[in-house]
Design a protein that fits this description.
This protein is an alpha+beta fold. Helices cover about 40% and strands about 15% of the residues. It has a four-stranded mixed sheet with strand order 2-1-3-4, with helices on both faces. The relative contact order is 0.22. It holds the Pfam family ArsC.
Length: about 120
Amino acid sequence: MKKVFYLNTCDTCRKILAQFDLTDWELREIKKQPITKEELAEMHKLTKSYDALFSRKSTQIKLRGLDVKSLGEKDFKELLLDHYTFLKRPVFMTDKEIFVGNDKNNVEELQKFFGVI
């Protein structure tokens, strides 16, 4: 299994995806096809944390008046399943590895994984 979860309207996601040959990867646009409970469980199995998958930049945080500091793992799980913008993206996932988000270190690890650097 090789999947990429991304948002098509996100310039950063498009820029990162464009760096790699994704011909044998399943591309999932999360706005059109939100993540399932099973997929979130697979992500959690690899990260050991819903918090690690949670985007603190989601516009929904302010709209909903959420205090992220007071949220627990159960809250993160529910929010991730509730709205696509709560997922830190892009997420590249294989059976054994996961790369979450667009921070510099993650992108460098992805480049190593794909043999780009």
